[in-house]
């Protein structure tokens, strides 16, 4: 009997061989490109406006373009990975990033820059969901029910915790090389990711001569188009705030309703509505993660604007001030991810977000700068707890055959939270960035954090063991 156990159970050596640094490097590098690019351009908006001769306000569309493209492309890339193979989609995404970076680096007008940012958004969105599929495949081949926690932890650090890196890196690139560098930097990184993916990621199986109609059915092209239209309408409504276009909101509601009705009858639905209804653990994971990311990005957007406008810090200096968020979140993820826990980390994430939100009330024009640094540490810890817990919950509760789409949808909820945070800061700071405004933002964050904490503590699905998903 002992010999049988020894021969069937996966060994530590098997795990190490399955998840080597060569296999993981292109997945981690690719997954970091999206969050870094989301904030990388922030320090370049004013120089871009001067460089191509447009009003500064128009360059904000470059931020919007990547968010909108990413929110739609994340689950779409996951679905494509399930149908065509994750390595193929990963490589296609890396190529799109390189092309987008090159186009942006030589662009002479705003339209070309918008095309560049859309390509970068779509391309970088391919990495995270396909990485989840490739890691799941490796785990199965190694005889593991779940990959080692450290593997998912590294993906968590690369895919989310790196978001605040874009501000200081962008500041250094713009000051040293000019605004085109924030686009061109994607080219060498994409080349490295492409070379390592081609060399170290196992090829997908052969495609079995899909016909166009069969491909459209398996991808659920109608569902993807409906989801994209509904999501874009919702995000445009949020971006336009504080100007309220009720007709856009009404259009979004109509489009969401039509898309849900379609998905209920689709043979291979893009977003499995019935699945979300029967697996509350998965649905709750999305909603709670979106609320947590809303709080985190309010800090990135709101506090950064306040530090620059009220305290007089440069954009690069304010970016460096927020750098501890990345460092602390990375440390927290590394410490707890190997245990594959859910409930403890997500409760800790909600409570630290609440504590940090209350701490924002202390901010005024005379406060010691160390208080801001401490707050970034608190929110960094909150991000680390949240990302570790919710990604483990996703891997646990999502059907394995739909893991790519499910992983992409988690990132979409995160983007909805970030866009909502941009709307909040835009409303509060519409006329002037001030101490009164930052305190109002603090109260809004406290309300959101209280709701998040209440929902988290009341969520019974978080008590489930990893091998006992709800609704199965």
Task: Characterise this structure.
The two termini are 32 Å apart. This protein has 472 residues and is mostly helical. The protein has helices spanning 2-8, 12-18, 21-40, 45-52, 60-84, 86-106, 110-125, 127-141, 149-159, 166-177, 181-184, 186-200, 212-219, 221-240, 246-265, 273-278, 280-309, 315-321, 323-336, 343-359, 369-397, 403-428, 435-458. The protein is 77% helix and 0% strand. Mean pLDDT is 83; it is low at 1-10 and 464-472. The protein contains 23 helices and no strands.
Distance between the termini: 32 Å
Please state roughly what percent of the residues sit in beta strands, choosing from under 5%, 5-15%, 15-25%, 25-35%, 35-45% or over 45%. under 5%
Mean pLDDT: 83
Q: Could you describe the largest sheet, including whether it forms a barrel?
A: none
Q: Over the alpha carbons, how many angstroms does the gyration radius reach? A: 22 Å
Write the element-wise H/E pattern from the N-terminal end onward: HHHHHHHHHHHHHHHHHHHHHHH
**Structural class, please?**
mainly alpha
Count the helices. How many?
Answer: 23
Broad shape: globular
Q: What's the count of strands?
A: 0
Percent helix, as a range, is over 70%
Unreliable stretches (pLDDT < 50, length at least 5) are 1-10, 464-472
């Amino acid at each position: 009997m002992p010999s049988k156990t020894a021969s069937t159970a996966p060994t530590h050596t098997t795990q190490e061989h399955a998840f080597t640094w060569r296999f993981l490097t292109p997945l981690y590098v690719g997954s970091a490109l999206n969050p870094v690019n989301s904030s990388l351009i922030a320090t370049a908006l004013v120089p871009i406006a001067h460089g191509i001769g447009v009003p500064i306000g128009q360059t904000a569309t470059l931020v919007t373009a990547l968010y909108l493209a990413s929110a739609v492309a994340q689950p779409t890339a996951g679905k494509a990975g399930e149908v065509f193979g994750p390595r193929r989609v990963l490589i296609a995404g890396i190529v799109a990033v390189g092309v987008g970076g090159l186009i942006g680096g030589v662009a002479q007008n705003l339209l070309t820059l918008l095309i560049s940012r859309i390509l970068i958004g779509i391309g970088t969105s391919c990495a995270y969901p396909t990485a989840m599929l490739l890691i799941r495949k490796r785990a199965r081949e190694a005889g593991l029910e779940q990959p080692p926690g450290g593997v998912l932890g590294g993906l968590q650090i690369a895919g989310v915790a790196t978001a605040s890196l874009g501000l200081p890196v962008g500041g250094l690139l713009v000051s040293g090389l000019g605004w085109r560098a924030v686009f061109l930097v994607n080219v060498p990184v994409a080349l490295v990711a492409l070379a390592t993916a081609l060399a170290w990621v196992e090829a997908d199986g052969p495609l079995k001569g899909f016909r166009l109609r069969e491909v459209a059915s398996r991808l659920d092209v109608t569902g993807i188009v409906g989801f994209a239209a509904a999501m874009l309408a919702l995000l445009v409504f949020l971006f336009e705030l504080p100007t309220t276009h009720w007709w856009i909101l009404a259009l979004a509601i109509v489009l969401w309703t039509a898309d849900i009705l379609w998905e209920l009858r689709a043979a291979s639905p893009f977003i499995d509505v019935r699945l979300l209804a029967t697996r509350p653990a998965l649905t709750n994971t999305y909603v709670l993660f979106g609320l947590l990311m809303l709080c985190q990005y309010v800090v990135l957007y709101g506090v950064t604007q306040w530090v620059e406008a009220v305290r007089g810090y440069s954009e690069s200096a304010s970016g460096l001030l927020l750098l501890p968020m990345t460092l602390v979140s990375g440390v927290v993820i590394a410490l707890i991810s190997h245990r594959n826990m859910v409930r403890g980390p997500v409760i800790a994430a909600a409570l630290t977000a609440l504590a940090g939100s209350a701490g924002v009330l202390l901010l005024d024009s005379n406060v010691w700068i160390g208080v801001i640094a401490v707050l970034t540490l608190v929110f960094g810890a909150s991000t680390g707890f949240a990302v570790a817990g919710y990604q483990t919950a996703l891997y646990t509760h999502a059907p394995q055959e739909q893991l790519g789409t499910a992983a992409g949808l988690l990132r979409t909820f995160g983007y909805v939270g970030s866009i909502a945070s941009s709307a909040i800061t835009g409303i509060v700071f519409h006329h002037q960035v001030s101490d009164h405004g930052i305190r109002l933002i603090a109260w809004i964050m406290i309300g959101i954090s209280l709701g998040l904490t209440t929902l988290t503590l009341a969520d019974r699905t978080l008590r489930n063991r990893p091998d006992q998903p709800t609704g199965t």
